[in-house]
C-alpha cells in the first residue's frame, strides 16, 4: 500500500488501539503503519515472512547507516494532520526503536506462526496486506487468519488492511498473486474466526502506482471475542 493511502488507516484506528503489547505483521520492511499508533504500546514485536525483511528491520533497529530512511512517511503524515513541523522525526524514530523488543520470522501456514518460538499473546495485531498476498483461496485466507489469531488475546484488537478486487503486485518485473475477494467474503471470515467487527471502511484506490493492482483499500478494526 503506498504511503499516501495510510490516511484511511490513520483515521480509522485511533479509537480502537490500546494495550501494552502489539504485533506488526506487514508486507515488506514497512514502518509507516506504526508511526500513528506506536506510542500506545510499550512492547512491539515485528514479524516478517522472509529473512531479507528481518535483516532490513534489524539494521533499522540498530540505527545502521545503510538502513531505510522513513522520514518521507513523516512528511506525508504531517501533511495529513495539517502540521508542517517534522523536525521531531529523529526523536520519534528513536522512541519507536526503543519499543521494538522482538523481530522474528513468521509462517501463517503454521498453527503457531512463530514456531519454534512461543510468543505471549498481545493486545493488538496490525496486518498490512500480508494475508491477501500469501493466500490463493478464501479457505486459505480463513485458515491463516485463524493461525494468526492465536497470537492475539481475547478482547484484543485486529487492524487488518488490504485490497478488494486485487490481482497481483510486481517486484523486479516478477508478478505475485494477491487474493481477489469482496467485502462479504471478509466479513464472513472474521465472524467465523471469532471476531466482532467494530469498524470497516472501504475507499477507492487513490494511488496511481502500477506495481500493484486493486480497486479498493479496506481497513477493518475487529475485536477478538472467542477462540476459533
UniProtKB/TrEMBL annotation:
SUPFAM superfamilies: S-adenosyl-L-methionine-dependent methyltransferases. GO terms for biological process: methylation. The keyword Methyltransferase applies. The keyword ATP-binding does not apply. Keywords: Methyltransferase, S-adenosyl-L-methionine, Transferase. InterPro entries: NNMT_TEMT_trans (IPR000940), SAM-dependent_MTases_sf (IPR029063). Transmembrane segments: none annotated. GO terms for molecular function: N-methyltransferase activity. GO terms for cellular component: cytosol. Belongs to the class I-like SAM-binding methyltransferase superfamily. NNMT/PNMT/TEMT family. PANTHER family: NICOTINAMIDE N-METHYLTRANSFERASE ISOFORM X2 (PTHR10867:SF44), NNMT/PNMT/TEMT FAMILY MEMBER (PTHR10867). This is Nicotinamide N-methyltransferase. It comes from Leptobrachium leishanense (Leishan spiny toad).
Amino acid at each position: 500500500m503506498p504511503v499516501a493511502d495510510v490516511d484511511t488507516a490513520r483515521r480509522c484506528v485511533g479509537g480502537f488501539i490500546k494495550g501494552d503489547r502489539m504485533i506488526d505483521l506487514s508486507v515488506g520492511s514497512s514502518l509507516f503503519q506504526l508511526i500513528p499508533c506506536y506510542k500506545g504500546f510499550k512492547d512491539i514485536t515485528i514479524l516478517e515472512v522472509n529473512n531479507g525483511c528481518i535483516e532490513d528491520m534489524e539494521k533499522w533497529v540498530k540505527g545502521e547507516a545503510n538502513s531505510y530512511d522513513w522520514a518521507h512517511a513523516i512528511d506525508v503524515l504531517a501533511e495529513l494532520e495539517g502540521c508542517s513541523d517534522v523536525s521531531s522525526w529523529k526523536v520519534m524514530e528513536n522512541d519507536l526503536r526503543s519499543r521494538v523488543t522482538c523481530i522474528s520470522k513468521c509462517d501463517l501456514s503454521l498453527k503457531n506462526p512463530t514456531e519454534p518460538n512461543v510468543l505471549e499473546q498481545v493486545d493488538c495485531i496490525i496486518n498490512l496486506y500480508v494475508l491477501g498476498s500469501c493466500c490463493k483461496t478464501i479457505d486459505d485466507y480463513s485458515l491463516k487468519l485463524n493461525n494468526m489469531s492465536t497470537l492475539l488475546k481475547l478482547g484484543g484488537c485486529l487492524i487488518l488492511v488490504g485490497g478488494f478486487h486485487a490481482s497481483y503486485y510486481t517486484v523486479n518485473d516478477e508478478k505475485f498473486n494477491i487474493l481477489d475477494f469482496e467485502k462479504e467474503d471478509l466479513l464472513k471470515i472474521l465472524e467465523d474466526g471469532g471476531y466482532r467487527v467494530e469498524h470497516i471502511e472501504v475507499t477507492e484506490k487513490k494511488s496511481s502506482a502500477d506495481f500493484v493492482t486493486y480497486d479498493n483499500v479496506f481497513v477493518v478494526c475487529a475485536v477478538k471475542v472467542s477462540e476459533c
